[in-house]
Amino acid sequence: MNIETLSIKEVQKKLKEKSISVPEIAEALFRQIDRVEPTVRAYISLNRDMVLKKAHALQEELEKDGYPETPSLLGIPIALKDNLCTTDFPTTCAGKILEKYHSPFDATVVEKLRANKALILGKTNMDEFAMGSSTENSSVQKTANPWDVKKVPGGSSGGSAAAVAAGETLGALGSDTGGSIRQPASFCGVVGMKPTYGLVSRYGLVAFASSFDQIGPLAKTVEDAALLLQCIAGYDERDNTSFAGEVPDFDAGLKQPVKGKVVGIPGEYLDKGLNPEVKKVFESVVHKLEQEGVECREVSLPHTAYAVATYYIISTAEASSNLARFDGVHYGYRSENPEDTMELFTRSRSEGFGDEVKRRIMLGTYVLSSGYYDDYYLKALKVRTLIKQDFEKVFETCDAILAPTCPTTAYGIGEMEDPLEMYLGDIFTIPANLAGLPGITLRGGYDDKGLPVGVQLIGDSFKEASLLNFAWNLEQALNLREYPQL
Length: 486
Ligand code: GLN
Hints:
The chain starts with 7 loop residues before the first helix and ends in an 8-residue tail after the last helix. It has 15 helices and 11 strands. It has a single domain (1-486), classed as Amidase signature (AS) domain (Amidase signature (AS) enzymes). It is of the alpha/beta class and 486 residues long. α2 packs antiparallel against α3 (48-65). The chain is globular, with a radius of gyration of 21 Å. Glutamine is lined by residues 130-133, 156, 176-180, 208, 315, 426.
């Protein structure tokens, strides 16, 4: 039995039937990790002994108390992006400045996973402080795309996406500030979901840009993503942007037909800049949805062209403020033998941060500085409102939006040299973050080199249930379940 190719739901069925035990699941995944991790390099930290010990304890619990009520993740291996605080693994954000940081507390999502009896396997690689789109900005290692190990896995949650695609975990969590769950999920051919801003607590997520950051699941199937989201969503008094409403049952309507629903396709997303292979796959996906009885109509999001600039102004401004805490005193790396306090700060930060993080801090400090605040930061906030209004208008007549996730498929490691060019690759994922909306990506097909092409569904605020329902139907209609050969 190749457990590494199964979905969470399939493994749960075997657990319930007692045809498999929790330690057997964990051991199977560690065998897969041993086999592929030297090439994929998805994990920053793993702890086999600790995990196997927990697996045995969970098995005992299962035998004593029986299988718990749903939703449960009992014995299901989950990997976590290394910007989610955990007490039992270091939390490094793939940066030198937090290289030796051990959090004294668990993030809320981690607490929730533990309460649901998940087996936390390890922490995954990422772009330093989640800044990037290829995981090449990690100070630890470069992760490879399991579909072609010369290509990037996307980023910044590249380790989580690659680990799921390579069968090194059954599910993972990532964070999405401007596309960091959906873009790597698209490059690695897995399902990735960014929930509505506020649905999942950010407590214990190392902040990059607080008005955008959201934690979400990466999994092999839409059903698994729905289950993971169910287990991590909900109000948390420790996050003051947390949504206080009820979390719906995402499983209840998941498999309802979508016949008669309306999907909007933003014309601006299909303009120039979209790789022809991606466009071809996207068009075939539209056709599939139409065959399911969904009405696909062209809509307009007129301020799309300003999204990337707006995001890189506001997110860097927030990052420059959030990252001020890494000063060599409060947390992490401290430079040796400074002359005075000023030098302690400057040298610790200069030596501790990588180039991309420094670029963002400088940009953010600039757009917030007096004389430029009105021209850049304030203006960007106004454009953000216009972008939000574009979506509100579309959702007056459409149930969801369908769009490509990225303009291209995965590119070569080391190939993208210009940071600006990399920023432009975020064009289709950023708008949902600016508007706080939920988005889910799934595999839509393949390009001519056999690399996965992702498609994205964007929904109105807190309409996750309906979005998952669309995604499930599309996934069934497309029926793509090939695995990368590693
Ligand atoms: N690629 C985007 C950036 O570099 C998004 C990152 C993210 O979502 N964390 O900012």
